[in-house]
Amino acid sequence: MRDNTGFGRAYEMNAASTSAGHTFRPQLLDRRARLQAAATSVSAAYLNDLIADIDSALQRIDTGSYGLCETCHDAIEADRLERNPLVRFCLDHLSQAELLAHQQDLELATQIQSKLLPPRDIALESWDTQYRYEPVGAVGGDYCELIVLGDGKSLFFAVGDVAGKGVAASLLMAHLSAIFRSLLSLDLSLADVVSRANRLFSESTAPAHYATLVCGRATADGVELCNAGHCRPLLVQRDATQRLDPTGLPLGLFCAGQYTVRHISLGAGESLALYSDGITEAQDPVGNEYQEERLIRSLREHFEQGAGAMADGVLQDVARFRQTRPAIDDMTLLIVRRRR
Ligand SMILES: [Zn+2]
Hints:
- By secondary structure, the protein is an alpha+beta fold.
- The protein has nine helices and ten strands.
- It has helices at 6-37, 44-63, 78-83, 96-116, 166-184, 190-204, 277-280, 291-301, 307-322; strands spanning 127-134, 142-148, 155-162, 211-219, 222-228, 234-236, 241-243, 262-264, 271-275, 331-338.
- The chain has a five-stranded antiparallel beta sheet.
- Helix 8 (291-301) packs across helix 9.
- The longest helix is centred in the N-terminal third of the chain and has 32 residues, at 6-37.
- The chain starts with 5 loop residues before the first helix and ends with a strand.
- The chain binds zinc ion.
- Zinc ion binds next to loops.
């Protein structure tokens, strides 16, 4: 817990500023040198303003106030400082103009992300699908994918969860989506797709960035499934529900991760439910979690009514369970249902 009073807080803020100053001083000096080198390409007044901004940041490093909001003196959000080492206010204390610009950025991010999501319902000869994607903020860190494969009868599907929240997580989600889309254009086995995605994701992201993911290929013969450390998908059959355990580690943890695939047969009307932990870990007002048991009950209640009714039934039940408690994590649910 954070000590918000007296000496403890002052010490904490001081340490935050020193560490931010240490990280960003070389960047600021580099910026200054580049600006001076490009001096002839901009007006002198503009150049002087930019250099003054940098010098003021360097001065704040020397006085131990760099990286702290000038209104509340709390540490400025690390990801914002990383994108722009000259920011001087935390998100809570932006000027009207900055706030407006920030809101416009978020709206744009929402639009971009909505274009990355698959069509709402894809129905093939043998399969019906339905998904629901509910980010907790303007953008989400959950990954949801549905791609009809070259033969027009088979389907690639995935649900994943990227570490972190908000815009940073949504950027990683977009990265993951691009990796899978490019790999699926090659003629690879599912285990190869996931192994290569893991390697590409590990090599191109920071070590702290990883994603859990379950994905599969549905063909006329059945489903192949690969689970990289994600919460267990559920096989909802007429008389029983099976929990399908992970078959590998999350993506991005180890370059040499190994992934195995399991084969599953579904009878007509049976479904696979893939979801993110935002659903099972949704909380009611006293902090109880929704959990897998209640998810299974809710899915079974709508078993006969099809994929859309199952997806809506769960989301409505989660909302009932939460009552007034706001969502704390992105929620994704994907139903893949065998038609015949
Ligand atoms: Zn502030």
